[in-house]
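Worked example

This section walks through a single chain of length 213. The input is the sequence exactly as stored; nothing has been trimmed or padded.
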Amino acid sequence: MPPWLADPYDWSEIASGSIDVVTCSEVFEHAEYFWITILEIARVLKPNGLAFITSPGGGPRHRFPVDCWRFYDDAFPALARYAGLNLLEAQVQWVPAYRKGIQWRDSSAVMQKPLRDAAEGFEEALRQTIGKSLRGGKPAIEEILVVAGRNSAPDEIGEISPLKAQPGRNAFAAREAELLAAGNMLLMKTRLVMRQIREIKRIITTPLKDLHL
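Given that input, the structure is written out below as tokens.
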């Protein structure tokens, strides 16, 4: 996303129907409201303009500053319909193709903005208005800090402001600690190892022609 955009979900600096091609690589997982992002992409594209979007369909957490979503086979086709774009191609990279980090599975799509008549143009404007009507004002960095056990979060000018105590926010972590203390660690590790063995076996038995290397 260009650094000169003041708001990641309101690209007022870019005129509607002014862009031939939009590329969006490994962004949607970090966008809390990716459904607004796809609407802005659709808005700024020229008729017949193209959008290439890729985002993880699987992989470890990597906050920047948030990591919210993973996208499976049906995700981008659904987003194309939601934004009124034609889906030209969509695929999830289920077979690993990287030498390192085989846990990553990229989901990719190519979409095209269709030519619209007056009625369809009104429908697009209505979709834009409704789709952008509900959103939060700030990224969820405060949520991350609370879950991480910190008592404060940065405000808009970079200082530290207190957060209200919220009992029960760490209930999941506490329950996980209880289970581990009860002797389930060995069972969990065994299941993880077996899962990894099954994945390795699947990769080994996959014909080379299907690896898309």
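What to look for: The longest helix spans residues 171-205.
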